């Protein structure tokens, strides 16, 4: 029986930044999609959220709300380094690993019994190894990528969905965890449908007629059906850690300070 583990990091762009700049932990930080005052906030630290900084507002608006806010543009280098570090964590347990663009990592649990006595031990090991890479990850384990990802996103730490319980597990959860597009979300909300179990109760034919193939696929996902295969990343031939700087380094002392991280 297929069992998939999912490693998911909340506010991944922020986590990637803090991995390279740990001194920013505990202070208001906002990540933006650009480098000017009109750039939009992508995500924010809990301290910035407490100051009413929200995704979508401009950097100028965010600074007006929080005078001590540190604003950083989203760094492709930091994101790539964090993604690969998380995939390496999964790869230390098993060979079949998928790395998604948003930093989510999937691991085929087959063969992990040689290292872990149980799935709970596997999840604990993954979290500990991610922590050593500077990333606080949540782990979900299920019989498909869909269930494992939802379990990681809503579990808060570790969530293991036993085989055969997928439909009962999904039923009380919000439909948004199935990642419908904005138009589909609005339509379902107008029908009063908010939980995944509400979708399961709908006849497939009627959903397909009204919402098309996207609606039919959403209902299948609500049943826990997932036809997405594990797309394993190729074996790496080089290992890179990188960070993007706002300034040039011309002396050895600041370079050594950076390398110590």
Description:
The chain is 41% helix and 12% strand. It has 261 residues and is an alpha/beta fold. The strands form two sheets. A five-stranded mixed beta sheet has the order 5-6-1-7-8. It has a three-stranded mixed beta sheet with strand order 3-2-4, sandwiched between helices. A hairpin with an 8-residue loop joins strand 2 and strand 3 (41-44). Helix 1 packs across helix 4 (76-91).
For the termini, the CA-CA separation is 41 Å
- How many E strands? 8
Count of separate DSSP helical elements: 11
Strand order of the largest sheet: 5-6-1-7-8
State the low-pLDDT regions, or none.
none
User: What share of residues is helical?
Assistant: 40-55%
Compute the average pLDDT.
90
Query: SSE order in H/E notation?
Result: EHEEHHEHEEHEHEHHHHH
User: What is the 3D form?
Assistant: globular
The major β-sheet equals: 5 strands, mixed
Structural class: alpha/beta
Q: What is the C-alpha radius of gyration, as a whole number of Å?
A: 21 Å
The percent range for strand residues is 5-15%
